[in-house]
């Protein structure tokens, strides 16, 4: 009987150690999920605020001015409905065209 008792106790300790590691990982996961939810809510509020500011700015400056929209290369390809309807994503924006300058050319 004693012959089986020592390996059984060893296996029990190993199982308990693994369970402790798993419990710790699950607790860390819950903590990170909570932090992620706070970041998500904050980002959503900030996106909503920026969207409202953009909408107010576009309304104030005359969104219907097609020439102005064509002049802004960053908004090329986005419709007014996309911008104002909440389908706007900064990932959709194109970077403004830049001219390449050599390292030795002056900026001015």
From TrEMBL:
<dbReference type="GO" id="GO:0005814">
    <property type="term" value="C:centriole"/>
</dbReference>
<dbReference type="GO" id="GO:0045202">
    <property type="term" value="C:synapse"/>
</dbReference>
<dbReference type="GO" id="GO:0097539">
    <property type="term" value="C:ciliary transition fiber"/>
</dbReference>
<protein>
    <submittedName>
        <fullName>Centrosomal protein 89</fullName>
    </submittedName>
</protein>
<dbReference type="GO" id="GO:0007005">
    <property type="term" value="P:mitochondrion organization"/>
</dbReference>
<dbReference type="GO" id="GO:0060271">
    <property type="term" value="P:cilium assembly"/>
</dbReference>
<dbReference type="GO" id="GO:0007268">
    <property type="term" value="P:chemical synaptic transmission"/>
</dbReference>
<dbReference type="InterPro" id="IPR033545">
    <property type="entry name" value="CEP89"/>
</dbReference>
């Amino acid at each position: 009987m004693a012959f089986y008792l020592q390996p059984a106790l060893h296996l029990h300790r190993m199982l308990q150690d693994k369970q402790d590691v798993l419990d710790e990982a699950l607790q860390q996961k819950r903590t990170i999920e909570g932090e992620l939810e706070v970041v998500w809510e904050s980002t959503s509020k900030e996106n909503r605020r920026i969207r409202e500011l953009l909408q107010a700015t576009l309304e104030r400056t005359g969104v219907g001015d097609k020439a102005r929209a064509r002049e802004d290369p960053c908004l090329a390809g986005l419709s007014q409905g996309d911008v104002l309807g909440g389908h706007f994503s900064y990932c959709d924006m194109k970077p403004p065209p830049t001219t390449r300058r050599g390292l030795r050319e002056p900026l001015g």
